[in-house]
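Consider the tokenized backbone below.
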């Protein structure tokens, strides 16, 4: 007889949903926001666990991982599979989520200040 393997699946709490939605509202892509919130709430996770927990597909997870890896937000390592096959990648945040939010805030402030400077130049052109 074949027995099924039992796994627990993590899902977003209301607070985590709100966190992800706030990130989306400030301009972060949905898939990046959801993966970031998921990794902020768990010490480490495989792509498969992230797929299940965020209710997204593998291509979306890969795009989010590439985005976050380019910014130095996450790190990954390979874990040998329990049975034969490819090793699985395990992901975790490289830096605390508070530091990530600080960097997002800084970029948003710089963008706003640059836009304000352009508006001031526009006003100068009218004089």
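A designed sequence for it:
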């Amino acid at each position: 007889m074949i027995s099924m393997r039992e796994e627990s699946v993590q899902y977003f709490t209301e607070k985590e949903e709100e966190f992800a939605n706030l990130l989306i509202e400030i301009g972060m892509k949905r898939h990046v926001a959801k993966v970031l919130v998921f990794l902020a709430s768990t010490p480490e996770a495989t792509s498969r666990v992230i797929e299940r927990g965020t209710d997204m597909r593998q291509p979306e997870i890969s795009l989010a991982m590439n985005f976050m890896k380019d910014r130095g937000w996450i790190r990954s390592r390979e874990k040998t599979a329990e049975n034969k096959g490819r090793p699985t990648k395990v992901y975790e945040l490289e830096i605390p989520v508070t530091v990530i939010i600080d960097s997002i805030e800084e970029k948003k402030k710089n963008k706003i200040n640059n836009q304000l400077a352009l508006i001031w130049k526009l006003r100068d052109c009218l004089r």
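The chain has two domains: 7-95, 96-127.
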